[in-house]
Specification:
By secondary structure, the chain is of the alpha/beta class. The chain folds into two domains: 58 residues; 280 residues, Aldolase class I (TIM Barrel, Alpha-Beta Barrel), CATH 3.20.20. Helix 12 links the parallel strand 13 and strand 14. The C terminus is likely disordered. Helix 1 crosses helix 2 and helix 11 runs parallel beside helix 12. It is globular, with a radius of gyration of 21 Å. The structure holds iron/sulfur cluster (SF4). The site of iron/sulfur cluster (SF4) has 11 residues, from helix 4.
């Protein structure tokens, strides 16, 4: 048996898998807590004998990602980490401080689920890189575990908005999410774990079928099929009409409101007609709309100015009966904002 990463398993799975080695559920919780919180094996005590731990080390190890670069935004404190896996695959994570309440400061980690991405959204730096490979469970867990140890505030949430399309690596993403939620480990509430997708229809239907407890954000950016196809090639594979049906099924199964993300691009998707088309597409579906300025390092796409953005918000108010939230996308000075990840990796993977 080759050595397995401890942080690829929940405590229950560890206990079942290593029961023949004397692993009880309590010992499994103790091992996992030490591995994900501190990155070390637990100290031996009366119940964890040195001999038992030595035996286990033949089968299990605590894997670590190398940090190749760490950059901190002077403007808003966002921190971007460039990681390398043992095989050289590279990917990035962002530590996002939420400092709006001084007495309750906390942080959220934006994680990658793949090295590179195959979806090719034209406004995204990762999309221009192409796909390298899926990340393994432990590689997703390690991003949060390692950033948590660097964070000045408790990490209370995880968003799968880094490199990659998480719903194309769904088994690993769901397993990592289960490990994030383990009370003995990172203890992050399932409701504070967000999966962000461009709209992989079969995976959305699976989330619905399994009633997964995580939040879902779907990147829409246009409700006009031709327009959407121009910036999001996924439209050719999973068109808006089937995506709408999948979200209706998701809502029917979970009862949850979904968030739609709208990347604001000047002169492209901010007109009265765009708002009307979106409202027609949404229909009775309970949604919230998040508006996020495009961040395109190439300069091909620009965010709208205040006048254009406000006019679009007014149009949305006239047509769409749903909450609209403008999302802050921070860390622009260190290329950590939405759509900018991997800008510095070009040619490296
Ligand atoms: S926006 Fe997301 S899905 Fe689209 S190319 Fe970028 S990382 Fe991939």
């Amino acid at each position: 048996m080759t050595s397995e990463p401890i942080t690829a398993f929940t405590s229950q799975q560890l206990a079942a898998r290593y029961a023949s080695h004397g692993m009880t559920p309590r010992l499994a919780r103790c091992l996992l807590a030490s591995a994900v919180r501190f990155g070390v094996w637990p100290d031996q005590d009366t119940t964890l004998s040195a001999r038992w731990l030595r035996d286990l080390r033949n089968y299990l190890h605590i894997p670590v990602l190398s940090v190749l670069e760490r950059r901190t935004s002077a403007g808003d404190g966002f921190e971007k980490f460039l990681f390398a896996a043992p095989d050289g695959a590279r990917f990035e994570s962002v530590l996002i401080p939420l400092a709006h309440r001084q007495e309750d400061r906390k942080a959220v980690v934006c994680v990658s689920s793949q090295s590179g991405c195959a979806m090719g959204c034209t406004f995204c730096a990762t999309g221009r890189l192409g796909f390298s490979r899926h990340l393994e469970v432990w590689e997703i867990v390690a991003q949060v575990a390692q950033l948590r140890r660097e964070s000045s505030f408790p990490v209370r949430g995880v968003v799968f908005m880094g490199m990659g399309e998480p719903l194309l690596n769904l088994d690993a993403v769901l397993q990592a999410a289960r490990i994030f939620s383990e009370p003995c480990g990172l203890a992050i509430s399932a409701k504070a774990i967000t999966l962000s997708t461009v709209g992989i229809v079969p995976a959305i239907l699976r989330l619905a079928r399994e009633r997964q407890p995580y939040r879902l954000i779907v990147s829409l950016t246009s409700a006009d099929p031709d327009k959407r196809r121009r910036v999001m090639p996924v439209e050719a594979r999973y068109p808006l009409s089937t995506l709408r049906d999948a979200l209706a099924a998701y809502h029917a199964a979970t009862g949850r409101r979904m968030t739609l993300a709208w990347t604001l691009i000047a002169g492209f998707n901010t007109s009265e007609e765009d708002a009307q088309q979106l409202a027609d597409w949404v229909g009775e579906l309970p949604v919230q709309l998040d508006l996020i300025d495009v961040n395109d390092a190439t300069g091909r796409f620009a965010p709208p100015d205040d006048a254009e953005r406000n006019a679009f918000r007014d149009a949305l108010r006239r047509h769409l009966a749903a909450p609209v939230v403008r999302r802050y996308s921070g860390g622009k000075d260190i290329e950590a904002a939405c759509g900018m990840l991997a800008a510095q990796l070009r040619g490296a993977i």
